[in-house]
Amino acid sequence: MTPTNSLSSSAERIAFSGLRSLRDLNLEISALSEQIRLILAKALAREEISIAEGITLFECEGADLDALKRTASHLCHQVHGDRVGFVVNRNINFTNICYMGCKFCGFAKRSEDKGAEFLSFDQVVARAQEAWDRGATEVCIQGGLHPKLEGTYYRDLCKAIKAALPDMHIHAFSPYEIWYGAAKSRMSYHDFISDLMEAGLGSMPGTAAEILDTEIRQQLTKNKLSTEKWVEIIRAAHEVGLPTTATIMYGHIDGPEHWAAHLALLRDIQKDTGGFTELVPLSFVHSDSPLYTQNPDKVRPGPTSMEVDKMHAVARLMLHGWIDNIQVSWTKLGPDRARQMLQAGVNDLGGTLMNESISRSAGSDFGQEITPHEMVQIIRGAGRVPYQRNTIYETKACYANSDPEEQAPLVERSVDQNLSFLRMFPDVREQAGAGERGHLEPSQSLWVGGRQSASKNAANGGAS
Ligand SMILES: O=c1nc2n(C[C@H](O)[C@H](O)[C@H](O)CO)c3cc(O)ccc3cc-2c(=O)[nH]1
Ligand SMILES: C[C@H]1O[C@@H](n2cnc3c(N)ncnc32)[C@H](O)[C@@H]1O
Ligand code: SF4
């Protein structure tokens, strides 16, 4: 198919995507406040950004913030060139029945509540099969901590999916679910996770992280997994060879000091294990979240727009060379803000999802699915070259010169969730010879068993 919504030349795409040459960037930086100038110069020299410096970056504004975003974009291009990825996947929440009482959560229900759900294995497998038939490479599976779940449930669910779909990647079970399953099975985390891997688990979402700070966690929920346990479970997963993502849920009762410390903690873990594939910042969705509705005076209604920019940009700077994939969550921000983040250090749009419920039940209104064809247009709308990847960042298809098949979304959209959001993107013209910069060979992954290729690309000069 002929590509739609694209730019005519590489130079045009670079200018449009907000990227500056190193010379221009250095010039711009020389005009900034002394403090920010020194930190950005350090980042460009690949020196480590400390927690204190991270806090300073989180507090910057105006020209300083513009330069921070451009520095993040520059580092992103050093690693990834023009490419921005997405995964074709389906989110399957096998149950929303949960009594853990996390205050930020709008998803959990009691078993007698209207809308309470507990899918059978057959139903989960049927959803996975339907996803496979629509081209999904991954199912992302998480659920409530249902009181009647056996410890063996998680393993048996993986086996049931793999029996029907041996090549489907299972990205499943948050550290909180691992804690629950391991406790019910009276097994160590290492043994419990190894058992899940034998049953077909391919990777784990690094959710349940929220803010990795004891005081904040106690206010978000008294019972939830401690910071220490989250770290222990993530380390155990990495040690037995299971990759995980990393997340941060921000914009509620937290602030810059928590964010910088959280990112530094993830970086420390990565230095030891290399097991994180990506960071996914999750903006707090407030409107149907008890945390906010019960305390609107004390809890913020999600991060400000500036904080969203800063989170993605500072994460790029603090994690550079360690966690080089920064994913924006379109379910939290919507397609247009997600597109803008591609100019603040982000190189990934995450999953097409097909069924989103966690954000929707907390009040987000960005729908359940963005189809591959739409993902490609959003990415081109930021002057970047789209590619489909699998969960561990291997290229499945590059859309420099073609488009994926158009597909109707799995769940019909309401009128306000139709494709009209794509019209807000700039009118960009057909492109010839797109994608000559920054391309990887199809088999090359930016996450190869914990060793990322950032330093190699940077050593080659990166984007100029
Ligand atoms: O439907 C959802 N899927 C979520 N997913 C799935 C995600 O969008 C993608 O499937 C993968 O991260 C793609 O690599 C997550 C996966 C993670 O590893 C970490 C966080 C999330 C968060 C969500 C979420 O809020 N809603
Ligand atoms: C599965 C993950 O989804 C995230 N999550 C749950 N509820 C919300 C919300 N209201 N806003 C943003 N993220 C949320 C949490 O980080 C959880 O661990
Ligand atoms: S966040 Fe997870 S564990 Fe907490 S209440 Fe919601 S579903 Fe339950």
TrEMBL record:
Family affiliation: In the N-terminal section; belongs to the radical SAM superfamily. CofG family.
Gene Ontology MF terms in the entry: 4 iron, 4 sulfur cluster binding; 5-amino-6-(D-ribitylamino)uracil--L-tyrosine 4-hydroxyphenyl transferase activity; 7,8-didemethyl-8-hydroxy-5-deazariboflavin synthase activity; metal ion binding
Extent of Low complexity compositional bias: 453-464
Pathway assigned in UniProt: Cofactor biosynthesis; coenzyme F0 biosynthesis
The enzyme's E.C. designation: 2.5.1.147, 4.3.1.32
Protein name per its UniProtKB record: FO synthase
Keywords: 4Fe-4S, Iron, Iron-sulfur, Metal-binding, S-adenosyl-L-methionine, Transferase
Region (Disordered): 430-464
Ranges for domain Radical SAM core: 84-324
